[in-house]
Design a protein that fits this description.
This protein has 969 residues and is α+β, with helices and mostly antiparallel strands. The chain has 26 helices and 43 strands. The strands form 16 sheets. The chain has a 5-stranded mixed sheet with strand order 2-1-6-14-15. A hairpin with a 7-residue loop joins strand 10 and strand 11. Helix 4 packs across helix 5. It is flat and about 190 Å long.
């Protein structure tokens, strides 16, 4: 027992020693920890002295319509937005799951630290984090991810400083803009777009809970990786939101039961590079670097890059190749389309397959342009005032000596042969190498090089073969567009651009392209010169090598094909758009084989691709014409056969209007159609002859002569004689004189009226005529034995010896006499006067008329007409004016009607104009003299007034009134 007590005492002493030792060690550790903590507190930097790790922000690239085209970002795809653009749902969800006492602590949540420590001890390791949202923001922004005591202490201390420096809302905003949500999405805006295809301000409760749940382990809980884990994690967050009062029970139930629906395109975009217009996007990046933006600026700087790309035209550009080539082809191809008014690049295809080759032929591929480079030679020739009508030998091969070099031998494509001479216009239309070789030597290849240098086209050299596409280093499709854009804009050069504006994420402008303020903007060619070149190049499409490019509206262009079919081009433009198409292999030494048994030349497939694209690009635009310059250019009609002013005899189908500049207006007339043969017009009447000679552009003079061999008005001779060839050089109408017969000599028939037979015979004899026939008859006016008529009539032209018939009066016909004038007589007097004149057969009519009743106002026949006495004479007598029935009318209405018929009206009775007519004199439907008096009597309408049970009748009367209204007849 004693032994046991001793053992107990020893154990008790040993335990006490252990306890004391623990206390000493704990105090020592506390001192050490406190010293270290004080050291860290003393050495922690102020917030102002810390440099936060720059927050990478995604740069956005926009198409010309403002829609998003693509994004540039490094590992962190982020878009920073203000607090107001964040949904309350996401703010509540993040606070609920990450820091429920966020709005009450001061940067460090001590209660959470203790809870986390207890959880760790129970778990025997790290089980629960204790960092607040502020601490997480500090960790993500100011420190590396290493896990050290010093970092944790500094993190807490800086968090406290952050809380003192910023509001809680600002801290939450900064946190939500920086934190990683997985799938390459940093910040809540990009996360909302990636997972749900919407902006952060539109996130629902369920969507917010899912995104907040990602913060713990983004890739583990990503719905792209495991939708079940994502749903379970979301529901945990929803439970916390309900517990903390952010959502109601009904909202919780609805959100928990909501299916997880994610944005599939977000998954695709997070794993793959945007492939829309990839060559254009690469060119945009290149231009950003040329404008001195760094990699950080481009991929992390949050730039807003506004480009010129037109999505619809880009699709049309890509589709134009598949329309022409439904099946895959071996050669590559390129297309670039530019607005000539400002240099905007609307569409760009840099190659056949971006995945196979990212080499951008449109901007990097320096190729030989072939006959496309006849265009700068044409421009330079016009600038040097060389008339496009100037002719050259078009047939090869020809040899040109080049000082210091081997002789240059030139032939046409395929050895084509033409006539003896050809002007520059036709050589352009038909792409004739031999003519353009001579023209290049005339204008000087060095001058062509200088012209191109002014358009920012360099490294092409001044080889004499420049006009046939022989360049030192070749040229890109984009550079070729500069030439044709300058022509389309009337001679103004705009640098091709793909970026119109660059801002930072806050909208501050860092760069802006203003076409007319750009240093490269300048006039290269005078407007009349550019228009003249355009007129010529339009004919390349309508009638030359570019016919396959015809789009049915104003357009100009040029084909180009290099030796061995290594490059094939079509470059063309309308007033609205410039487009260049190229085909070939990236290996410039490899020729193209025929496709579908058809050689690939500039006028074949490239022209068709150009047509397909331009037709689609311009289909909704109104047709416009190339602007005709107001000055410096003259439009003159010429004969196509000679290129000179037309004569009268140039066929109308050969006439065309051509433009001439700087005093090059033609002054000489066509020497092909300047001869005319005098036609034989003998025997034609004068009118037929005049019409024919006028149609042949003769100036006609006429001589009229007596001719016994030809009838009157017949042409019997011309001067010059028929068959004579007249040649003119001044285009003055050649003069021809026609001789017109006036027949045999004519005699004017004398007037024999009133002559006796003997005197008539004497008059006719003296005139060379004869009396051939005598007819006697009664005359209505001529006394007996005197001539009252003749045939031919007096004044008629007759031939000598013509016989004349005369009519001799037997006296006045007793059965006829003149009808007397009886107008205005009474019926009785008129009948008496007609009877006295011998007219007994009289018909008398009566009609309504203003004339006095019973008096004649019309007769037939008219007075003094010679008339057979036995015939009827009709006389018409007035029966006056018919009186209308006005009984029952209002007094004013009746008076007005009667006055309008010319009657004088007298009214009796009736106090006012509304009184009713109760009688009239004379009665209605009778006739009375025009202007006679009509008496009408009126009576007022009685009014009955009732008061109580008694009624009284009041009649208002007035004295008789009389008024006379006169109306002209």
């Amino acid at each position: 027992m004693k032994r046991n007590n001793e053992i107990k005492k020893q154990k008790k002493g040993c335990g006490f020693k252990i306890f004391v030792t623990f206390i000493i060690l704990f105090c020592f550790a506390a001192v050490i920890f406190g010293a270290v903590a004080l050291y860290y507190i003393a050495t922690v930097p102020d917030l102002e002295d810390l440099n936060p790790t720059p927050v990478a922000e995604t740069s956005k690239v926009y198409a010309i319509d403002g829609s998003l085209l693509t994004e540039f970002h490094a590992t962190e795809n982020r878009e920073i937005i203000p607090f107001s653009k964040m949904s309350e749902n996401i703010k509540n969800a993040v606070i609920a799951v990450e820091d429920k006492r966020f709005y009450s602590h001061e940067g460090v949540d001590y209660r959470r630290i203790i809870g986390a420590l207890i959880a760790d001890i129970k778990a025997g390791g790290y089980a629960q984090g204790a960092s607040t949202i502020t601490q997480q923001y500090v960790k993500n922004t100011y420190f590396s991810q290493e896990k050290t005591v010093r970092r944790k202490i500094n993190e807490a201390l800086i968090a406290i400083q952050i809380e003192r420096h910023f509001t809680k809302d600002k801290i939450l905003e900064m946190y939500l803009n920086t934190v990683n949500f997985g799938s390459g999405s940093y910040g809540i805006e990009k996360a909302a777009q990636t997972y749900f295809g919407k902006n952060a301000e539109n996130l629902s409760i369920s969507e917010s809970a899912l995104l907040a749940g990602l913060l713990k382990l983004p890739e583990v809980y990503s719905p792209f990786n495991n939708i079940e884990k994502a749903r379970n994690r979301r529901n945990i967050v929803l439970g916390l939101m309900k517990e903390q009062g952010y959502i109601t029970s009904s909202e919780y139930k609805e959100a928990v039961n909501e299916a997880v629906t994610v944005n599939v395109s977000g998954l695709m975009n997070s794993n793959t590079e945007n492939r829309f217009a990839p060559y254009f996007i690469d060119f945009v990046k290149q231009q950003l670097y040329e404008k001195k933006f760094s990699d950080y600026d481009v991929f992390k700087g949050g730039l807003r890059i506004y480009t010129t790309l037109d999505k619809e035209l880009q699709v049309a550009a890509e589709n134009s190749f598949t329309k022409v080539f439904p099946n895959p082809i071996d050669p590559s191809y390129s297309l670039v389309s530019v607005d000539p008014c400002n240099g905007y690049i609307y569409a760009m295809v840099g190659g056949k397959d971006y995945n196979a080759s990212k080499f951008n032929i449109a901007t990097q591929g320096k190729r030989q342009p072939g006959s496309v480079f006849k265009v700068p030679v044409l421009i330079e020739a016009i600038r040097q005032n060389i008339n496009p009508q100037k002719t050259y030998n078009p047939n090869g091969p020809i040899t040109i000596d080049i000082p210091g070099s081997k002789p240059w031998v030139i032939d046409n494509y395929g050895g084509q042969k033409f006539g003896e001479s050809m002007n520059i216009i036709d050589a352009t239309i038909n792409s004739v190498n031999v003519v353009y070789a001579q023209l290049t030597m005339e204008v000087g290849s060095d001058n062509v090089e200088k012209l191109l240098n002014n358009m920012d086209i360099y490294d092409i050299g001044s080889n004499p073969a420049i006009g046939l596409g022989g360049l030192e280093q070749g040229i890109t499709p984009l550079d070729v567009s500069k030439i044709f854009s300058t022509l389309s804009s009337g001679g103004l050069y705009h640098e091709p651009v793909c970026i119109t504006k660059i801002t930072d994420s806050k909208g501050e402008v860092l760069f802006e392209y203003l076409p007319e303020k750009n240093p490269s903007f300048k006039r290269i060619i005078d407007e009349p010169e550019a228009f003249l070149a355009t007129q010529i190049l339009q004919r390349v499409i309508t009638e030359g090598t570019g016919r396959n490019a015809n789009i049915g509206r104003p357009a100009a262009g040029k084909t180009g094909t290099t030796s061995d079919l290594r490059d094939a081009w079509f470059a063309g433009y309308s007033p609205e758009l410039v487009t260049v198409v190229w085909m070939g292999y990236q290996d410039s030494n490899r020729p193209m084989e025929p496709i579908n048994d058809r050689n690939i030349t500039g006028g074949s497939y490239p022209a068709e691709i150009w047509r397909e694209f331009m037709s689609e690009a311009l289909k909704d635009r109104p047709v416009s014409q190339f602007k005709i310059p107001g000055e410096g250019l003259n439009e003159i009609q010429v004969c196509r056969d000679s290129g000179k002013l037309p004569t009268f005899w140039c066929p109308s189908e050969n006439l065309e209007f051509r433009l001439f500049v700087k005093g090059e207006i033609p002054t000489k007339y066509c020497d092909v159609h300047n001869k005319i043969t005098v036609p034989d017009v003998t025997g034609m009447n004068s009118e037929q002859c005049r019409q024919l000679l006028n149609s042949l552009f003769f100036s006609v003079s006429e001589i009229i002569e007596v001719n016994n061999d030809y009838e009157e008005d017949t042409v019997f001779k011309t001067d010059p004689l028929p068959g004579t060839v007249i040649e003119t050089s001044d285009n003055i109408n050649p003069l021809i004189t026609i001789f017109i017969s006036k027949g045999t000599e004519k005699i004017i028939m004398p007037d024999l009226t009133g002559q006796t037979r003997n005197s008539a015979e004497n008059i006719l004899k003296e005139a060379g005529l004869s009396l051939s026939n005598i007819i006697t008859d009664y005359s209505s006016f001529q006394p007996a034995d005197l001539i009252y008529d003749q045939d031919p009539a007096p004044g008629t032209e007759v031939a000598p010896g013509t016989g004349v018939t005369v009519y001799i009066s037997k006296g006045i016909n007793p059965s006829q006499t003149a009808v007397p004038d009886i107008i205005g007589l009474s019926r009785q007097d008129a009948v008496k006067k007609l009877n006295n004149a011998g007219f007994l057969n009289i018909s008398i009519l009566e009609e309504e008329n203003k004339s006095p009743i019973g008096f004649v106002f019309k007769q037939s026949p008219a007075p003094q007409t010679i008339y057979n006495k036995e015939q009827v004479v009709i006389i018409t007598i007035s029966k006056g004016i018919k009186v209308p029935n006005v009984i029952g009318m209002q007094k004013s209405e009746a008076s007005t009607l009667l006055s309008s018929l010319g009657f004088t009206v007298e009214t009796t009775g009736g106090a006012d104009s509304s009184s009713k007519i109760i009688s009239q004199t004379p009665l209605g439907e009778t006739f009375a003299e025009f202007g006679s008096k009509i008496t009408i009597k009126a009576e007022d309408i009685q009014e009955t007034t009732t008061t109580g049970t008694q009624a009284s009748t009041t009649t208002t009367s007035s004295s008789t009134t009389s008024s006379t209204v006169s109306s002209g007849g």
